[in-house]
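Incident review: delayed structure delivery

Summary: a single-chain prediction request sat in the queue longer than the usual turnaround. Root cause was a stuck worker, restarted by the on-call engineer. No data loss occurred. The affected request and its eventual output are reproduced below so the record is complete for anyone auditing the incident later.

Affected input:
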Amino acid sequence: MPALAAPLIEWYRDAARDLPWRRPGFGAWGTLVSEFMLQQTPVARVIPHLEAWLERWPTPADLAASPPSDAVTQWANLGYPRRALWLHRAAVEIRDRHDGVVPREVEALLALTGIGDYTARAVAVFAYGDRHPVVDTNTRRVLARAVEGVAQPGPPHRRDLERMDAELPRDLLEAAVVNAAAMELGAIVCTARAPKCDLCPLAAQCAWRAAGYPASEDRRRRQAKYEGSDRQARGAVLKLLRDAAPSPMPLSAVLPDWPDAAQRDRAIDSLIADGLAEADDDLLRLPGHPAS
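Output delivered after worker restart:
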């Protein structure tokens, strides 16, 4: 068994958080929805939205039968609302290409809208029990420290999958646990800014600890300030459209008092370009609803 696997499996047995997508019988659709929502969004914010989403749309076909505007509205304040559109399109593709069943094969999952390497493998592993390396930001940080002896990982690279694959046992269940455990360890112990090294099950094997915790360049992308940003303007416009749905809004009524009119207009134009809004006859609405 690879060196990191046994301590990760033992630690995860007692330390894993009780999260909805880890419970038996959660299903591939629930796993897929959770992975969409968890992209760049904290777990605590995701859980209530996930439960409400799956209660409203328990299958891909249920979501596919609704207009995309309903998905954008239900997404509420989760952020990065294009994810809602992508998830809706993926549901339509699952209905039309896969008879309403979330596919198992990584290549088929990668062919769905909005799904990349991480999400495809996460569904294949955590929903279907197949053996693949699953690598997110937390996993990359654990591998960087424990295996490479550096404080922070470099930019994402295909070799990340190879590194994680080398740490996976051949047994399917154990491999899935190691994937989940590495992510969990990075999320709650081997954190970016304040790692709890005294609680880490990999302390004895950690190359970074053995080297005396040397600093390394932090090449993570920094999130631009939200206050006063174009993202804030986009969010404000989208909230107005969600609150008004299914009715459209006159363009003249969209944030008329916004302090930067050019920024407001950029926000409207970018939402239209991203498919999150539609304009017609000086009216603005969420996508997919007929004109009122």
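Verification: The chain is about 50% helix and 5% strand.
Action items: add queue-age alerting; document worker restart procedure.
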